[in-house]
Design brief:
Layout lengths: L8 H12 L4 H7 L4 H9 L1 H36 L5 H18 L22 H22 L1
Helix pairs in contact: 4-5
Length: about 150
């Protein structure tokens, strides 16, 4: 594994301009007099590629943070639009809410155990026995309510 060298001033300037967002890649390369082939060679160097990837990761983190900050306000505005007098606007707001909900909900449902393990000292109940007990308790409930009145 080769040691990573520090970036040149030119490489740093190119990275700065690429991530400033004012110019696209060909314009940045032209501004700094870098041939596209030479730019590709920089990517073969570990240090330039790592710095580039770090900046992309930082940009993604920043955008996620902005979206997270604005999500409650955007959700509230969407909900408010559901009461809009324009039916099409209200319909689209409803669809957006549904889409937002499905995109933010967990992809898989958590596993629910089928039966809880019996506590020590208590007998385990079969599902049939538990159903009969619940049915019996449900029948008892109205009688207890009548006695209290």
């Amino acid at each position: 594994m080769s040691k990573s060298k520090s970036l040149s001033k030119r490489q740093l300037a190119v990275l700065e301009d690429l991530f400033a967002g004012e110019l696209d890649e060909p314009e940045v390369l032209e501004k700094h007099g870098v041939h596209p082939h030479h730019f590709e060679q920089w990517f073969a160097e570990g240090s330039f590629r790592q710095q580039f990837e770090r900046r992309i990761a930082r940009a993604h983190r920043e955008s996620r943070l902005i979206l997270a900050r604005c999500a409650p306000l955007a959700a509230a505005k969407l909900v408010a639009l559901t009461d809009c007098e324009k039916e099409e606007t209200a319909r689209k707001a409803c669809l957006d809410i549904i889409a937002l909900q499905s995109s933010t909900s967990p992809r898989t449902l958590p596993e629910v155990p089928t039966a809880t393990p019996p506590k020590e000292g208590l007998p385990a109940l079969s599902p049939e026995t538990a159903s009969r007990l619940l049915a019996a308790l449900a029948k008892e409930q109205p009688k207890a309510d009548e006695a209290g009145n």
